[in-house]
Amino acid sequence: MQPTLVANGDNDRVVPTENSYRLARLIPNAKLSIYPDAGHGFLSQYPAEFGAEVNAFLGR
């Protein structure tokens, strides 16, 4: 199975955080990252951290 990165804020009201936990459990070889004190805009709240995580996940 292909590795999958699942990321979300810990207080996302658009895509409920609970769904990210569920998705990561259902996808074999998934890596889950939940960003603290963040909502749906966790990408703009943690741009450097998420960018570094994506680069590491992709093996760069």
In short:
This protein has 3 helices and 2 strands, in the order E-H-E-H-H. With 60 residues, it is an alpha+beta fold.
Describe this structure in words.
- There is one protein chain.
- The protein is built from 3 helices and 2 strands, in the order βαβαα.
- It has one domain (4-57).
- The chain has 60 residues and is of the alpha+beta class.
- The longest helix is centred in the last third of the chain and has 11 residues, at 47-57.
- The mean pLDDT is 96.
- The chain has a two-stranded parallel sheet.
- The protein has helices at residues 17-26, 42-45, 47-57, and strands at 4-9, 30-35.
- Share of helical residues: 40-55%
Distance between the termini: 20 Å
Tally of helical segments: 3
Structural class: alpha+beta
- Succession of helices and strands: EHEHH
Largest sheet: 2 strands, parallel
**What integer is the average pLDDT?**
96
**Low-confidence parts:** none
Strand neighbour order, sheet with most strands: 1-2
Q: How large is the share of residues in beta strands? A: 15-25%
Radius of gyration: 11 Å
Number of strands: 2
Form type: flat
Number of domains: 1
